[in-house]
Amino acid sequence: MSELKEFRLPDVGEGLTEADIVAWHVQPGDQVKDGQIIIEIETAKAVVELPSPYNGTVVSLLVEPGQTVDVGVPIITVDISGGSSAASGTRAPTEALASSDRAQALAVAEMVPPAASEPAPERHSVLVGYGVKTAATTRRPRKPPVSEPEGPKVHPERRQERPEGPKVHPEASERRSIAKPPVRKLAKDLGVSLSGLNGSGPEGSITREDVQRAAAGGSTRTASFTSASSAEERIPVRGVRKHMAAAMVSSAFSAPHVTEFLQVDVSETMAAVQRVRELPEYADVKVSPLLFVAKALLVAAARHPLINSSWNEAAQEIVVHGQVNLGIAVAAERGLLVPNVKDAGALPLPRLALALQELTETARAGKATPADLAGGTVTITNVGVFGVDAGTPILTPGEAAILAFGQVKDAPWVVSGQLAVRKICTLSLSFDHRIVDGELGSAVLRDVGAMLEDPVRTLAWA
User: Is 433 marked active-site?
Assistant: First the structure.
């Protein structure tokens, strides 16, 4: 006799209220084990893989990729009659996750109350948020294609309960490592099959350019599009991009921003970068000018602790942080991310270089965890990599300052009364004027500039 269990969308430990469904890793009829990864969801901060809390057979998928689902809503039904569920085990389902995922699916805490008409099952642990009351799912508006493949059949028992339940599209079977959601949507709109494409992106992932090239080469398109160049594209605002937009609006209209600029001769820093690259301690580490900028800001924060602080509106107080969690703004395909190096001021230069490299690579690959993105205290944004001289960066919410590092270029500069061609860049420091006045902001910017002009000062002041 079938014994059906519904797995509800859990709170993965970051105050989650909703999440977007990215991709399913299982289909109806598949056998699953307790702890097996079954779905990827995108929260406001990161993409998270969720494990099954049961052993059994997948009966039906109750939501489809692209849907926004509230915490506590059932997302999958599993028949556990053919095998023991997580209830028979002594461990929580999160214990089956790799260590890198433990920060995303936190400790087990709540119990699921049985329905009034059912006998009380054996008590067992579930993911945090599993017991939240049922809410409704919402679905982003999308353009209907001319024809759409038939989704997997719903189990007969589920069909009786949910006659209008959502169908799961074939795209759900494509792993996120092959193509990310915006790319899958573009491929669907243009009528391009991802299964036949060779990706040119990181780890063989398929990019928008790959899809557009395939469409231009004669692939079947939907009738509503005549060419990739003339198509109107609508991008749902959700996940990281939605969170970023809300955070930037909140920051811009809650904290009084002031931005100061300083042009700096960084010729000595550029020479130091080249010398450090040649040291054996940095053989496997990417050394860039950003490393020296980061070290200079860390030293300046130690000299001027108020720059590493937050404004607490509720308590009407300024919180000066005991350590510097250095944020690095990263332009990822999913949107702007600001992961941070925890207690960066305590790291020696080789470890700081490695931490910066690992953090940015992880963020660009879309694998930054909520823990990576939480708790930052001051941020650097490297606009120079885009060929930009300067800007007026918006503060990361909850932080008092953000430093923009512009492009390094040859320019005329007066050295000892003589005109010379030097390596010049522009530093831009935005700060919260409730915390940082003009004198303090200028002192921090001047100190960072002085250390980039003469890296020896960094050693003297550290």
Answer: yes
